[in-house]
């Protein structure tokens, strides 16, 4: 099936020119999926000087008020999940999270069963059939599309919006109820109930915003800064200066 499904350690980067194709680049699963927020410190317990910290990225984000939500609709970002080697990106993200516990359908794309530690609630979720995934799991945009729209995305090209909406950096398989509770909230209005994941969550959120040239509100910036005070060595992920 190619790199996208071989161990699910590939990073999927959608090709804005097509809703049906994507490029797949080899990368570390620890860096790009489950362990996106793992701190890197030296022997003295201090942040590694080579690590790009989330606090550094936060300081580089523009702080502005929300733009109007006028004109927002999901189709401004993407119409459907792209396919990689014939498999839906939704299924690829689910398989990324359940890892080696995945039991696959004969189509080699659909996850029928598996288990993982759900990040937003902290619960260990076990699924024994496909319908349980459909009901219990949603693919969340870490930076909600409506929030992105109001913080710069409406001024981007359709290709840039599509890339952000289908970038695995901005996608997590999460508990459906938790995701619905989040809705289109930013860090000032919603944080994962699982406090142990909040540092990783905000680090990933601001990494996405930096990568795609989006801004934060003052309240959002302050909320994120407050979280990062508890984990100053939290690295950014998927971005570079």
Strand content: 15-25%
Number of strands: 9
Shape: globular
Major β-sheet profile: 3 strands, antiparallel
Q: What sequence of helices (H) and strands (E) makes up the elements? A: EEHHEEHEEEHEHHEHHH
Helix count from the secondary structure assignment = 9
Helical content (DSSP H or I, runs of 4+): 25-40%
Query: Strand order within the widest sheet?
Result: 5-6-7
Cα distance spanning the termini: 34 Å
What gyration radius follows from the Cα positions, in whole Å?
17 Å
Structural class: alpha+beta
Total discrete domains: 1
Which regions are unreliable across 5 or more consecutive residues at pLDDT < 50?
1-47
The overall pLDDT, averaged over residues, is 84
Quickly describe the structure:
The protein is an alpha+beta fold and 241 residues long. The chain is 31% helix and 15% strand.
Q: Keyphrases for this structure?
A:
two-stranded antiparallel ribbon, 241 residues, 9 helices, disordered N terminus
